[in-house]
Write a structure and sequence with these properties.
single chain, alpha/beta, TIM Barrel, eight-stranded parallel beta sheet, two-stranded antiparallel sheet, 12 strands
Length: 288
């Protein structure tokens, strides 16, 4: 599997990144271990989770596995708290569950400028993340989230603090919206100039679940689940300049298909990217 440098960390991360959101609340330790092992065997060396994933179960399930494989992987987690005290407590809980210091702590799900103000302001979560870095609980600090404003918010975030990484959505549907694409491309350009690592989420998002629809996966949106389509989705997202990798969608049943697509990644030309965006034009975005 192809590897790319994850920003200024210098880590050569696999283009497929294991996303802890796939470890849902009812998953067993054996099931979690099997998914984590499958990713590692495919060449994945970057694992990303969050305190909130699986209602807190993701870090619990990852901990024993991480303890065995820590030297083989780059490990990130996230705090969804906005205030200093709550964020500091959550970071320490995550570090304990994951059996030791992590490589990356991220401010999670910052979806409005008001939340950015809280997280980066006095007595905010960013101060807790910086303390974690200063005390050796993490090496790097990032920011994450989704929504229509995500690229614009993270451009502003990089003006306020020199974040080491950004995680935000990239797919053909979103890039069909001119304002989103413009802000995303400007964010990617800034990231390249400043050596900021980029993780691109929602690469295989098909659309929102609708009322009465059979929710066949545990993701909060409907994912693509046809291999050829997933391949196109992955090819598109990984063809955006500055993207390091794609966290795998939040259901372990999708893991084999996304791993296969990452292993078979073929860069898209600009004309192919434009054609894919046009192909996605009639699809519904996952954000309201």
């Amino acid at each position: 599997m192809e590897k790319r440098q994850f920003g200024r960390s210098g880590h050569m991360s696999s283009v497929a990144i294991f996303g802890g959101a796939a470890l849902h609340p009812t998953i067993t330790q054996d099931e979690a271990d099997a998914a984590l092992d499958m990713a590692l065997a495919a060449g994945v060396n970057h694992y990303d989770t969050a305190a909130s994933y699986g209602n807190g179960m993701a870090e619990t399930r990852m901990g024993p596995w991480v303890e065995k494989h820590r030297s083989e992987i780059f490990l990130g987690t996230k705090t969804g708290e906005r205030g200093y005290g709550a964020a500091w407590a959550e970071i320490n809980r995550s570090v304990a569950l994951l059996r030791g210091p992590v490589d990356l702590i991220q401010i999670h799900a910052v979806t409005t400028f008001e939340e950015l103000d809280k997280a980066t302001g006095p007595d905010g979560a960013l101060e807790a993340a910086q303390r974690a870095r200063d005390e050796g609980l993490t090496t790097y600090v990032g920011i994450t989230g989704h929504g229509w404003l995500a690229p614009a918010i993270y451009r502003e975030a990089l003006n306020r603090f020199d974040f080491d990484s950004v995680l935000f959505p990239i797919n053909g549907v979103l890039f069909g919206k001119a304002e989103y694409r413009d802000n995303a491309e400007k964010l990617l350009q800034t990231a390249q100039e400043r050596n900021v690592g980029i993780m691109a989420i929602k690469s295989i998002a098909k659309g929102p679940w609708h009322e009465g629809q059979d929710r066949t996966y545990k993701t909060w949106y409907e994912p693509h689940d046809v291999q050829d389509t997933i391949q196109q989705c992955v090819n598109f997202t990984l063809s955006q300049a500055g993207v390091t990798g794609i966290p795998i969608a939040g259901d372990t049943r999708l893991l084999p298909m996304v791993l296969k697509a990452a292993e078979n990644f073929q860069p898209m030309s600009q004309s192919e990217q434009n054609a894919w965006i046009e192909n996605c034009r009639d699809m519904e975005a996952i954000f309201a």
